[in-house]
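pasting for the record
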Amino acid sequence: MKENQTIEFKESWKDEYLKWICGFANAYGGKLYIGKDNSGQALGLNNAAKLLEDIPNKVRDLLGIIIDVNLHSEGGLEFIEISVEPYPYPVSYKGQYHYRSGSTKQELKGAALDNFLLQKQGRTWDSAPIPNVSINELEDLDLFRMYAANSLRIDKQSRSEERRVGKEC
């Protein structure tokens, strides 16, 4: 087993790995192994019992999700497997959205974040409402269509179809 889109190995636990859990939850799910090196070999943990209690509580409190945290042993060395299911809604870590892409964790920002949030809602950018738009501004679209038809940028039939479709909505 090696690292990929759904598997990540860490030698010891650090709270920053909550970002990786967030990334798995926002993507396709995955497993984070604590106490293994990058090649997947067990190194062992000194504090496995404490982590079995701390990790689920931190994830619940900071991410608002529930994960499976399991203790395993390999060659007499203990390691922890954290199993994260994909979530249907966006999961954030301290207001940041992370996403697992390939074998990396990416923080979503700007247009990527906008697209991600819309996708999780089952929407696209063109279905999002525009705040503070007046009816007068929408009526300007009719004027635009008229000018476009007059300049032959669109034909008159398309203009009348667009008006009909707009009125049905």
